[in-house]
Every structure is written in C-alpha cells, then in structure tokens.
Amino acid sequence: MQKSIQPRGVKRVKRNLKFGFTLIELLVSVFIIALITGLFLADYHSINKRQKLIVAAQKMASDIKLAQQFSLGSKKHNGSTPSEGWGVYVNGSQDGSYIIFADNDGIGGYEYTAGLNEEFQTVNLPDGVVISSILVNGAPANEVNIVFLQPDPTTFINNDSAANAQIVLSNGNTTKTVKVNSLGLVDVN
What we know:
Layout: H1 23-72, E1 86-91, E2 97-102, E3 119-124, E4 130-136, E5 139-140, E6 143-149, E7 154-157, E8 165-170, E9 175-180, E10 186-188
Antiparallel strand pairs: 1-2, 1-6, 2-3, 4-5, 4-8, 6-7, 8-9, 9-10
C-alpha cells in the first residue's frame, strides 16, 4: 500500500458531514410560519369588513348614476316613461337597504311614494354595513330622495334643485360617504 503524502504542518481534517435539520431549527421554522399565519388570519376579518364597506358605497353610487341614466334615456317603468323622473330613496331608519324608483305619481313632489307601484328595485346592503347618517345641505335628515328629471337633467334632492346630499355608510369601524351635488355628480369618499 501506498501512503498518502501530506505536506508538513498540515493536519488531515476528518469530515463529519450530517445532512438534515436539527430539532431547534425545525421548531424555529414552525414557529415563524405559525406566527405569520396567525397575523394574516387576524387581519383577514378586518380586511373583509373594510372591503364590504367599499363595495357597498361604490354600489350605491353606481345605483344613483343608474337612476340618472334611466332618466336621461327615458327608460319606461310599467309601460310608460315616469313623468317625474327616476330616483333613489334612502331612509336612515331602514339602515339595511335603499330603493331605486320611478317617480310616476304625478303630484309634483320629486319623491318616492310607497304603495304607488313606483319601486323598481330594493337594494340590500351587505351584512355589517349600515346607513349611519344622512346629511342634506349639511343638516341631518332622516331620509333623502334623489330624483333626476329628464330631459335636462335636473337633480332634485328632497324637492330642492340646489341641494347637496351626503349618505354615510359604516361598518362599525370605518365610514364611507356617498356625495351627490345639485349638478348630479356622484362621488365616494
């Protein structure tokens, strides 16, 4: 047998290779994964509630714009074009819904009248989202009628063509405000 030749002063190092992870490394990894998962799950519910509120506010703004488009397009309701336009009725005491309606009562008031077959659609807000307040010209109101009269279009907010309205939606923690001005512009803040 031949001896291996090693230079002087160099010691041969015996390699002791181990493959895999130690128990401590595995425990630390599992703890980090559990911590990240816990943080995500805790915040998920809050994100879901906030998203429901945003979607509800955007839907309400979209429905107000839909009533405006119905009025501009002279959309028929029950076979005839509404004489006093299309609108959206929001009642603060019915905090879970609002009504898209065809104002066809012919009495000159630009408002929703229950029982006269004016209702086009009742829109329910998602669970956990409520109408927390209504402001007309900055003053609190129990309800608001937003009516668009064709063909101009003229916007009437509680029978006033110079009024502005704010409908505040809330999920308990956060609020979103749907604003409608006298020109019929709709915005969500």
